[in-house]
Amino acid sequence: MHKPREKVFWFAIVSRITVLILQFMFNLVCPDHHADAFRSPINNSERVSLYDNIIIFFLGGLTRWDGEYFIHIAKYGYTYENTLAFYPLYPMLIRIIAIFVRKIIFILNTHSSIIIAAILINTICFVKSTIIFYDLSKIILKKTNLAYKAAILYCINPATIFFSAIYSESLFAYLTYYSMLGSIKFDPYVSFPIGLSILTRSNGMLNIGFPIYFGLKELCHKYLTKYANFSLKTISQFLFKKTTLKSGILMCNTIIISIVPFILLQIYNYITFCIPHSNQIFIPKHIDNHSRMNNLILAGSNNIEWCHTKVPIAYSYIQQKYWNIGFFNYYEIKQIPNFILAFPILSIMVVCIKEYFLEHRKYFCTLGFIQIADNKELVKTKKYPIEMLVFIIHGLFLTIFCILFMHIQVSTRLISSASPLIYWYCALTMRSTLCNDDNVIHENEENIFSRWKIYFLIPKKYVLKDKLILFYFLGFTILGCFMFPNFLPWT
């Protein structure tokens, strides 16, 4: 008999193999669309062997769209201004792993080594993120079967192609779920994965809120346990207690250590792009020629506008300049297809947040800082565990930001890699195909002894909601494996 955690582990591996096969098949049978997108300049002096061509033949479909930026940064660093929109941890890891790949498989060139390194990182991070997500779900949802269902859905999430392609989604999801789990367990070193998540994607900054929330909630509960009434005297007594001061210092340290990598990144960007120097002599000729042909701004140029702002942070300026990111900037008639692509995941998020609010209105309004005694029988009948509150607030912020500011189709992969709500909502909504006794069994008799068979493969009649959820997850998985490798617009 295979335990849920073990089945989740193996299904995560199977899902990655399946995505690799699908993207290869679709990339093989369909010609690539000539998209107006950034492409890293080709170094004609680089040797290309038969083995390099084989790597491109099988895995080339995973290098599309933003993958070109990550490959370029891993190869050459931040040479063009527009590359600063992509944070450095993922391409830096690719560059390091690619060195070892090339030493082991010395017949490969730099480009092929980078592709293999990126896919290795993604596969490992995805499998590890699945296991951590299962552990996190088990704590919050309190039932093994629900955690199991949520983790399986995560493996076939609507943005799953991006978790295998040369994108930072897998790494970010791993660091984010690790940060969430560490915050719940009051891990004193949780600032390190948070800091690394900030170096992976800009929305990693939100992860600082998790340890701060749980720390403040713990302090508030301790205060209410010791003191019956609010007063300035009792508050001052509590604040100057040794344990309170220690907790406060720990939270401050968490914030500082988490933010330091971001500050160092801004200093690096400023020194590289804003201080005049002669670094052009170190830029390969084909990189320089590509910048002239495509009107790209090189590091150290004189015409970099964001360098002269009061707070010289490149990210928001570059997002607005190159991708027109801004308040309601994406609301155009021609973008209706992209709004349709984003509608399912945003609808799920809105419904989940709304239903939680209606079930736990008092708890939501007090942010969980004040314990409210609910009838135990009533709590059992509620759909959502009360402990989901901080994830609801996090998901609410992401949803609002996606609707108001972002390229709307990007909502699918941003939410899929940053918020557990979509998986928890679907796991809680789908009719249970598992045994009600959570401690006895997590599958039917046929699947329980199979390492590979999972619950939605059980022959049964699904209700409409189950069909819609599976159709959305599996449909977007297959469609994404077709669209993305062929350079067609996708989420």
Question: What does this protein structure show overall?
Answer:
There is one protein chain. The chain is mainly alpha-helical. The chain has helices spanning 4-29, 50-59, 66-76, 89-104, 110-141, 144-155, 160-164, 169-184, 191-198, 209-226, 232-239, 242-274, 285-294, 314-323, 336-359, 361-365, 376-381, 389-404, 411-418, 421-429, 445-448, 464-483. The longest helix is centred in the middle third of the chain and has 33 residues, at 242-274. The radius of gyration is 24 Å and the shape is globular. The two termini are 38 Å apart.
Summarize this entry quickly.
With 491 residues, this protein is mostly helical.
Task: Record the SSE blueprint.
Elements (H helix, E strand, L loop, with lengths): L3 H26 L20 H10 L6 H11 L12 H16 L5 H32 L2 H12 L4 H5 L4 H16 L6 H8 L10 H18 L5 H8 L2 H33 L10 H10 L19 H10 L12 H24 L1 H5 L10 H6 L7 H16 L6 H8 L2 H9 L15 H4 L15 H20 L8
Unreliable residue runs: 433-437
Distance between the termini: 38 Å
Largest sheet: none
Q: What percent of residues adopt helix (DSSP H or I)?
A: 55-70%
Question: Overall pLDDT, averaged?
Answer: 90
Principal-axis shape equals globular
Report the structural category: mainly alpha
**What is the CA-atom radius of gyration, in angstroms?**
24 Å
Total DSSP helices = 22
How much strand content do the residues show? under 5%
The topology string of helices and strands comes to HHHHHHHHHHHHHHHHHHHHHH
Count of strand segments: 0
